Queue: 2 jobs
Job 1
Amino acid sequence: MPDKPRYAGGLPSIKSTVSELIKSKRVRQNINNLYKMNKHKGFDCPGCAWGDEKDGTFKFCENGAKAVAWESTDKRIGKQFFAQFTLKELRDKSNYWLESQGRLVEPLRYHCDTDKYHPISWQQAFALIAQKLNGLDDPNQLELYTSGRASNEAAFLYQLFGRAFGTNNFPDCSNMCHEASGIALKQSIGVGKGTVVLDDFNHTECIFVFGQNPGSNHPRMLNALRKAAKNGTKIVTFNNLKEVGLQRFASPQAPAELFGLSRTTISHDYLTPKLGGDLAAVRGIAKAILDTYPQAIDHDFIKHHTQRFDAYTEVVNATSWQQIEKQSGLCKPQLEHAAHIFATAKNRISAWAMGITQHRHSVATIREISNLHLLTGAIGKKGSGLCPVRGHSNVQGNRTMGIVERPTPDFLNKLQRRFVFAPPTKPGHKTYDAIKALHTSASKILICLGGNIAAASADTAYAQEALGKADFIVNIATKLNRTHVNLKHDGLLLPCLGRTEIDRKQGVPQIITVEDTFSMVHGSMGSCEPISASAKSEIDIVANIADKVLGARVSIDWQRYAADYSAIRDAIADTIDGFNNFNHHIKQPGGFHLRNDAAHKCWNTDSGFAEFFTGDLPSSLYPDDVAEIVEKANEPVFTLQTLRSHDQYNTTVYGFNDRYRGVNGKRNVLFMNKVDMQFLSIFSGQRVDVTTLWNDNTKRQLRGMEVVEYDIPQGNVAAYYPEANPLVPFESVGEQSITPTSKSIPVVITLNRINLEAAF
Ligand SMILES: Nc1nc2c(c(=O)[nH]1)N[C@H]1C(S)=C(S)[C@@H](COP(=O)(O)OP(=O)(O)OC[C@H]3O[C@@H](n4cnc5c(=O)[nH]c(N)nc54)[C@H](O)[C@@H]3O)O[C@H]1N2
Ligand SMILES: Nc1nc2c(c(=O)[nH]1)N[C@H]1C(S)=C(S)[C@@H](COP(=O)(O)OP(=O)(O)OC[C@H]3O[C@@H](n4cnc5c(=O)[nH]c(N)nc54)[C@H](O)[C@@H]3O)O[C@H]1N2
Ligand SMILES: [Mo]
């Protein structure tokens, strides 16, 4: 077993923060940045979407500091850099190397004859985009990808541009992330967002955390969990792995904890279900509540607010403990104990992230979590509710602004009335459809407002082949990544400002806004000088693209929006519910809360009631034909999950350590249970090849992964994303969500031949 620390946070976390600041080569500036982060009149952390009270002193965490130091650096790459390398050469570099070169500082165009990027002026770049887009036969040949860092203002203009151009093709990172949460919650409670606010964590007696690793990915959440634990709140964790941050946390802001003299136990109970076993686990909890805790069932709530309760009790009764135990990998007494905690608490919160959303049955699983809350009336009252913990800092806001492939008729009508054009009503593409359409050349042009679709997508070989077929790709980005070096024909790489930078228009610093996971909308304003005079804000770039492409076809004054972001906010106020007096509201410290109807027990479902989900447990994690292949395999088949280390932000690799899991200096690891290792006669440090089992005769394999013994259920293994993405079959997606099943891939493990040779 690797030597893991016994708690998260504490002095090592401060040491790591300081070392990141030093690496950025801007220590003083970045200390100032951290002071301003997540505070009124400061900027929103470009890390995760967790919310904050906007008072007090420092409001950052170690990984937020990494995100800031990564963005706010003096390292730059311009034309000299790009003169040195062909894209073929750059494709041989690692993701880490590409991003470590520094910030992009000038607009560039790819020339396939030299296989290099060359400088181009902004005016020429916009003119080229206009020429290319206006040369398409059909507006639906354009794909407009968004990564969840774009501000509300940039996202709003981007969708307005796309719809004015004539398409609803808005693939976004959310399609690979919390899509299932939005779909499940909409079906269940009528709103696709979480119902709690941060303060609810101060008023709850019970928090269930499913499939989430806040110690690395939402470290500020640990403060809320710590505070709750200290108040006697019972925290129950369901995680496939033993994650240190969910066990014990030492707050760097509490002197005794900082110096390792004490720490706070976070999880009262820590259950390790099998991958994809949470639906069964939650059903077991519901079964135990129905059988043993009738007093916890809120009949009044059920009667007045829900539908299909009888059908639900029937399906729960019909589910046997044997099925529940087999599928969840947990035993009845463990689930009964969790049920006891849930049932005897006065109010309850359930939180979840990718361990729940990236499976074939994610929508059903989230609906089952919601069932627990409907059963006990634990929604729409203080200290109770549902909390999908979003990833990217403004991914939720992007959706609110209309980055969605199936806009509602109501929203389109509002756009039509306000901007006097006829928006397209045909549903557009999600990420899955967009990549497929590029692969068949049905789509021709891709514009990426941030992100790294080539590395973030499932089935790397297929995705990169698809991108290689695009006639023209425009990337708007801060740093060089895999997507930018994957061009084959023609394209542009346009440098933009980040959150930490001052964005001046006619000398006036502009504010942008974001929405956190609690639906709080607030302003963000950077404080560093821009990285280069020729980098533009995302808003500026999108507005200029729209202006040049659409010209007189629509009467939208894009330049006015580019010059004054408050004008965009006025347009948002006119077209998106909840944003009345937007410019006024963002002046309040902490911003304002967008009303969530479900949190007021107002159900925007077809029936007007919250809906119990009444499906059976799935028969397998995989589609039928794959399940059959798995069943018939001659060798043991494992389920693989792909996850994040402590030293990365999605496809951005900051470093090669995963401190809380005791991994140092490497990322090509496979976490495995000791018994499984013994069974396959594999020892720690040995190298193995991992091969996916699927139904399409395509070989998906990663060679030479180093085995690390870990506290993970038998039959389950784990590897890092994005390196393990070549193993995720493109067609392996969630039911309804169409999200890649990044947390359940059937694989076989064989000793790497090089190792075998060494052994003989
Ligand atoms: N520093 C940092 N912060 C980030 C990110 C980052 O990469 N780095 N990414 C951001 C983004 S976009 C997102 S979406 C979030 C991601 O935040 P997380 O969801 O925490 O990210 P993952 O690393 O994918 O972790 C999934 C967790 O679920 C567990 N798990 C996996 N499968 C199962 C299962 O079937 N059942 C259960 N019960 N547990 C399971 C894993 O063991 C792991 O602890 O974080 C955001 N914040
Ligand atoms: N196997 C597997 N695959 C996964 C996941 C998984 O858990 N396992 N997780 C999925 C999830 S949850 C997500 S959200 C996606 C992430 O997918 P993406 O959002 O597409 O990927 P990121 O790695 O976050 O994008 C990083 C790039 O964004 C650019 N960037 C950074 N800041 C800015 C900015 O301010 N503006 C602009 N314009 N560009 C900027 C930089 O160039 C950087 O290289 O990946 C998904 N893919
Ligand atoms: Mo995400």
Note: The radius of gyration is 25 Å.
Job 2
Amino acid sequence: MKALPFFPPDVFEEDREKLLSLVYELGTGSEQRFVLGDQTARLEQALRESTGAEHVIACGSGTGALELCVRALEIGPGDEVIVPAFCCQPVASAVAGTGATPVFADVDPHTMVLDPAAVEPLITARTKALLPAHVFSVMADMGRLRELARSHRLALIEDSAVAQGAVLDGRPAGRWGDLGVFSFFQVKSFGTAGEGGVVLTDDAELARACRMLRDHGQDGVHRFLHHRVGLNSRFDEVLAAFQLHRLPGFPDRLERRARIADYYAERFEPLRTRGVAAPPAGRNGRCYYVYSLLAERREELRAWLTERRIGTHVYYPVPLPLQPAFAPWAPEGARWPHAERVSATNLAIPIWPHLTDSDVEYIADSVCAFVA
Ligand SMILES: *Cc1c(COP(=O)(O)O)cnc(C)c1O
């Protein structure tokens, strides 16, 4: 049996000629403009069209996008932002980096996303924003989170880094908050051959702030005039052109991932009562970045799949508030039982679009054989 890596190293192989020619064209072009030029503006426009967002601001990474969001809202020392306890670290570092306090809320034990019921008791007079994230296969409950944000007059930042192309109740991921973000890191569903991300918003003032903040607080007209303390989170022209080239194929790649997930959901349904829980089936509010099982005997399942040459991945084995970096923001004695549980049981299996039907069948057979 051939090896099925968790994520293949040759994702951009079929675009290799295009990427080389873009490097050559832009590298030898008369403009010699390598960041924040026409290509970036065209990509921003294309994403405005595909998402319906009024403003799209391309920046250095998904992490950079979150940092821009928090800073655009003028969140800082003394302010609190509620973030998921089980997530990737930028949700916490983007907040802590401004001097504000990340407040960790527990997640849903099955879908692994921020649980609105865990959020509400943590809201205080200092809370300025909610920062939910979609993880792996399921979008956060944005309807309820939006209601919570509205009723408590909080800003809502939607970390949609992994969920570009997902749709919940007819509204695209990235379009539920005051600000949303996508990441173009290689492994994300609209990944690229390097780093990148965007902020999406309908708010002209927030958009203006993000544009300034991504380029050292300058306004794009007056160089060396700094209106605010900003960041360097500019976007690369070669990658902007490459993403424009890859954008038309994105819906098909996403659909292929969704079909693989449909098949897995059907095959794994009977395993639910036998120690292996798959993400909920269906298409509403689903993303197909990663397909993560929750397995009681995770290490054994992982070894079993490794033996069968199937690559797997354990995400976030330590919840954020239990990480040394975030210990200062973890209140004494606080616990996040669901986050701890999913940290100990999640196991992601391959879902990349170039898997063949027989690859997918082999992976499903192997998981089912473990349970049997
Ligand atoms: C990947 C990711 C980010 C950060 O994106 P980068 O482009 O890697 O900086 C933020 N949030 C979530 C949920 C992610 O998965």
Note: Residues 249-371 form a domain with the Aspartate Aminotransferase, domain 1 fold (CATH 3.90.1150.10).
